[in-house]
UniProtKB/TrEMBL annotation:
InterPro entries: 6-blade_b-propeller_TolB-like (IPR011042), Arylesterase (IPR002640), Serum_paraoxonase/arylesterase (IPR051288). It comes from Paramormyrops kingsleyae. This is Paraoxonase. Its EC number is 3.1.1.2. PANTHER family: PARAOXONASE (PTHR11799), PARAOXONASE-RELATED (PTHR11799:SF12).
Amino acid sequence: MGKLLIVFALIAVFVAFIGQRIITLRRVCLASREVIQNHLPNCRHLKGLEYGSEDITVLPHGLAIISTGLKYPGMMWFSDSPGKMYTVDLHDPRLKPVELKIAGAFDMHSFNPHGISVYIDDKDHSVYLFVVNHPQDNSQVEVFRFVEEDNSIVHLNTIQHELLYSVNDVVPVGADRFYATNDHYFSNAIMKNLEPLIGRPWTNVAYYSPDEVKVVAEGFFMANGINISPDKRHIYVSDIFDYKIYVMAIQENKNLTLLKSVDTGSLCDNVEVDLDTGDLWLGCLPDCWKMLHYDPEDPPGCEVIQIQNVLSEKPIVKQVYSDNGTIIQGCSVSAFYRHKLLIGTVFQKALVCDMK
Ligand SMILES: *[C@@H]1O[C@H](CO)[C@@H](O)[C@H](O)[C@H]1NC(C)=O
């Protein structure tokens, strides 16, 4: 009888524990936040992008590179076809996405691109494109050389490492070295899904180079987007579940020192940096519960947040755009070039707005 009581007590404790976790997850996910429409006048969808535009990066002369077709466990996807990469020339009024050809020894059929970023060599101006790829449940970073003349990328290298176990996004600091966020604590697929129920995840930023790989920042709830300041001295990490951007200084030895965090008020995914002003542009979710339980009748919305003067005492955090899912659903990125604003999503369309 005593034993039975103990078993019941343990079950009760376990149920209460899981219940608490679910409540925490719901709270973090802002279950009932209403999205107030904040539209811009001159927006249109980018043609042919229907299966996500998870990450976008813009080269200094206004050519945007977009990753599409992400299949991310726990999220919706509308097509099982392999992921693709596109470019859009922001100076061309047609704003037409053109698929990037992929050359070199590379398995296109399992391509599942996620975070992307470029590195431009100071001396010969070569452009290296770094792409987080999840061909199976795993994570690896693909390095390509971008050949603008024929809109192609040439595969150079696949980087795998035990410290790169659940990579979300990447920012290179050389042709063969980068910082990357791990968005989970566990690398095992089942444990990854259970992770939010077990406790507060403990995720990190790793630094990779051919001669040294190390964890350089940790303790994030869920480290997501990562990027670098135009002067290459600061790293920005979006902790999506903490509604914060962490600002860190790069040390000589490549370790990161936390300087401060900035509240975004939203669940922000990728971080893009305006090379002209240093402003941060974020693609955010007003409601992640709707993201995790996709319902076309009640879809997840979209929020674009801009942070000005991020390094100053008083950064300005501004909502530039928001939509309740009627126009665009589940935003993951926004990038600004001159007066053009690009908005990308995890599994749906992409939008471009002229803010002139
Ligand atoms: C979104 O807002 C519009 C009004 O701008 C409204 O007509 C529509 O029903 C809303 N959609 C959802 C899913 O809430």
